Amino acid sequence: MIIVITGLPGAGKTTTIEAVMKEIGDKIQVISFGTEMMKIVQKYGVNHRDEIRKKLTPAQIEEAQIEVAKYIDKIAKETKKLILVDTHASIKTEFGYLPGIPDSVIYNMKISGFVYITTKYEEIIKRREKDVTRYRDEEDKVEISLHNEMNLAVLSACAIKTGAPVKIIVNRDGQLEKSVNELKNYLLRWLE
Ligand code: AMP
Ligand code: MG
To answer: At 14, which CATH number?
Structure first.
C-alpha cells in the first residue's frame, strides 16, 4: 500500500516522518521521491537535490518522475509494509509550479491516501532560515501562501482522479509530538 506525504519545504515533513519511524518503523518503509529522482538525474549534471527544480526542464523532470513511480510501485507490490512516499504536491520551477504527482505518476503508482503537512507561514519562514543544509528559496508570506494553494489544488485533483482521501496535519511550532501522533495513528489505521 502506498501513502504519499507532501508539504511545503519547511513544514516539517521529514522531521515528523523520522519521529514516526522511531515508533512504528517495523511496519513502514519510507521512500524519498527526491532521493530517487537524484539517482536518475545525475546524468544531467545535477549535484544537489535543490538543483533538480532549477536545472531541469519539465520534460526531463517528468521522465524521471515516471521512472521513480514505476520503481516505487514495484517495491509496494513486493512488500507487506506500508510504503510512505515523502514528496511534494508541487515544485516551484522557473517554468512555474510543476505537479509532483502528475497523471503519469498516478497511472504508474497505485496510491491509497495523501497526507499534507502544513503550518502557519511565519513558522515555515523561520524553519527555512534555520535549515542550513538546504538551498531553500527565500519566500515571503504571499509566495508561501500561493505555493500552499497550488499544493492543495494539486492534491484535490489527485483525490478526484484516484478516489483517495487527503489527510491534512497542521504541524504547529512546539507541537511536534501532536503531529507525530496524528501521523502515526493515521498510518496504523491503514494497516488494520
Ligand atoms: P525534498 O528533499 O523532499 O525536498 O526533495 C528534494 C527535491 O526532489 C525537491 O526539491 C524536488 O526538486 C525533487 N522532488 C521531490 N519529489 C518530487 C516529485 N514528486 N516530482 C519531481 N521532483 C520531486
Ligand atoms: Mg524534506
So the answer is: 3.40.50.300
pLDDT tens sequence across 125-178: 998 888 888 777 778 899 999 999 999 999 999 999 999 999 999 999 999 999
Q: Is the CB of 97 under 6 A from ligand 1?
A: no
**pLDDT(81) > 90:** yes
* pTM: predicted TM-score of the whole model, two decimal places: 0.95
> Is the CB of 51 inside a 6 Å radius of any atom of ligand 1?
no
* Ligand 1 mean position, distance from CA 98 (Å): 11
DSSP assignment of the chain equals: -EEEEEE-TTSSHHHHHHHHHHHHTTTEEEEEHHHHHHHHHGGGT--SGGGHHHHS-HHHHHHHHHHHHHHHHHHHHH-SSEEEEE--SEEEETTEEEESS-HHHHHHS-EEEEEEEE--HHHHHHHHHH-TTS------HHHHHHHHHHHHHHHHHHHHHH---EEEEE--TT-HHHHHHHHHHHHHHHH-
Who surrounds ion ligand 2 at CB < 5 A?
Answer: 13-14
In this prediction, residue 116 has a pLDDT band, given cuts at 50, 70 and 90, of very high
For the chain, the domain total comes to: 1
Domain around 117: 2-190
